[in-house]
Each structure stands twice: as C-alpha cells, then as structure tokens.
Design a protein that fits this description.
alpha/beta; Rossmann fold; three-stranded parallel β-sheet; three-stranded antiparallel β-sheet; 9 helices; 30% helix; globular; disordered N terminus; binds glutamic acid
C-alpha cells in the first residue's frame, strides 16, 4: 500500500500548536560529517527553531555501495555531541525502499517513467540523455528507470541565492530514479521523504542548487506541494575547494563541539555566541538567528577551514 510506513514521524504540531515550518538535516553517510555538514546542520536547525518549527534528521543511505564504514555512527554521535534536539526519531532511507518502489509504480501508471538499457559507457559522463529508450517499452526488470521531462523551464526563488532556472529538456534530460543495480537514486528518495515528512523548507549546501529543478519537477508530477529553498554558501578548504567527503574534508572533532559550533555560527555571519555547553549556545543562536546575515553567495568567500 502507498505511504504506509508506520514509523513516519509526522507531528505537524508542536506542544499542541500547529507549525508552519518543518525542516531537516539529511546527510548521506558517504564519509564522516565535516565542517560543511555542521554549517548545514546548524543553519537548518536554527532556522527551523527560530520559526517555531520542527526539525527532523534523515540519513540518506540508499546508495549502499557508497556508504563509508562508521559514518552513520559518526552522524548519530555528532547529533548527540552538538546537543541538537530533533523533533522525531531519526529515519534511515534504506528502511524505506518499498515506499520509493511504490512511487515509481505511481509514476508508471501516469506513464512518466520508463526502463532504460543505455549504460554509462555508451552515454559517456557529462551527457544530457536524449531519450533513446523512451518508446522502447522495455521491461522494468534489472534496468535503470528514468523519469520523462518536458521542454519546460522551471524556476524557483532561492531565499539566499535568488532566482535559479533550468530547462528540463535542454539542461537536464530524462533522469534516473532507480539504477540498474536496484539502487534508488537520491533525487527520488529526497522528494518522497520531504513530502511524507511534511517538509516545508529545505536548507542545504549550494552544491545541491542544480538538483532542485529536477526535484521540483518530480514533486509536480506527484502533486506534492512546492517547498522553500535556502541554499547555503559552502565552506572551502585552504586550496579553495569546497569541503567534501571526496576531497577528504576533516571529520568533525566531537571532543570540541562548542568551539566548532562557534566557528560555524561565525561562518554563517551570525551574532557572536559565547562558548558554553552546545545546547545553551544553540539556544542563544536561535534567539539571535538572522537568515539575512548569511552571505548570499555560493561560497563563503574568505572563510577557509
Ligand atoms: N543527502 C544529501 C547530502 O548529504 C543532502 C540532501 C538534501 O539536503 O537534499 O549531500
């Protein structure tokens, strides 16, 4: 049955009151959390709580081969060490694969998905898929599943980055929702869970800006409401590269959470917060939170870690 997962955390009320802000932190356990992840966690948390909203944590672990050993534990330990208080139990996408399969079926009924046998070898890397398999009506068994896009420009107004647009057909092409090896793609899982968890706001790194039009398209096909997007500028290393698991960004040192929290708030250009226990610092940061102070660029210029 569709959307029947009993573990879904759906309190859209807090202390008996309706909330109109639901946000989240949704790390992929492809490496330990680093300072860039902390910036996302802090900004999503403070923005949600400053708006008297809910904040959920979701582990995006559908890409099993890319899971880095120990990183799920590091995420959970980090939530604890920084004394974040999620408003529901943490969910793991790998426990929810049936739900994503159901949504693929739902899109199949709408004739919006098809099986694709083109391999990456045939297509090359930086391609825009031209729809070779669209009308072949291949069986879904052991093939990649793609969603159809139309020749349509999608635009959204990012709270920090301003207007962002892509033409679905000419900039992006039909994209993969499920890989040939059965792995559910991030684009699908993120859209489905943001909907099922009642998200209203997405606060995440600007490296994900270019994924947003695909996600809006999927949401529209499924009649999900549109979300607000806040793409944060990225922390860089001293060689001017964005911090990422791929370029071996240092894992957060959980023995000094208060110092790291202070640095993350500085990076976000928030009013200063004295060193104290993390929960006290977060409380003060929420009271002083001002989204408008966050630099409106895709990089945190001049801030290197
Ligand atoms: N799981 C993604 C990541 O760790 C973030 C997804 C999102 O915030 O939409 O990069």
């Amino acid at each position: 049955m569709l959307f029947s997962n009993p573990s879904l955390p759906l309190p859209l009320k807090k202390e008996g009151k309706e909330v109109n802000y639901v946000g989240r932190f949704a790390p992929s356990p492809t490496g330990p959390l680093h300072f860039g992840s902390l910036i996302t966690a802090v900004a999503s948390y403070c923005d949600a709580k400053a708006n008297r909203g809910l904040w959920h944590v979701r582990i995006e672990d559908t890409d099993i081969p890319r899971i880095y050993p120990g990183s799920e534990d590091h995420i959970l330990q980090s939530i604890h060490a920084f004394q974040f208080e999620p408003d529901s139990e943490i969910i793991f996408q790998k426990d929810r694969l049936d739900i994503y399969e159901d949504v693929i079926q739902q899109l199949h009924q709408k004739k919006m998905v098809y099986a694709c046998q083109c391999t990456r070898k045939i297509l090359g890397s930086n391609h825009i898929y031209v729809g070779t398999c669209r009308d072949l009506a291949l069986s879904f068994d052991q093939q990649a599943i793609r969603v159809k896009v139309e020749n349509l420009e999608i635009c959204f107004q990012d709270v920090l980055q301003g207007q962002h647009c892509s033409n679905l057909a000419t900039d992006l092409g039909d994209f993969v929702l499920k890989r040939r090896d059965g792995i559910i793609n991030y684009q699908l899982a993120v859209v489905v869970d943001d909907y099922l968890q009642g998200m209203t706001h997405v606060v995440r790194g600007a490296d994900l800006l270019d994924n947003t039009e695909r996600q809006i398209w999927l949401g529209e096909l499924l009649d999900y409401p549109r979300l607000e997007y806040i793409h944060l500028p990225l922390a860089m290393n001293d060689q001017g590269q964005k911090l990422s698991k791929q370029n071996m960004a240092q894992a957060l040192d959980l023995s000094k959470p208060s110092e790291l929290l202070q640095q993350a708030l500085q990076a976000l250009k928030q009013p200063s917060v004295e060193l104290d226990a993390p929960n006290k610092m977060l409380k003060q940061a929420i009271a002083q939170w001002d989204l408008n102070l966050i630099p409106k660029h895709t990089n945190l210029d001049g801030f290197y870690i």
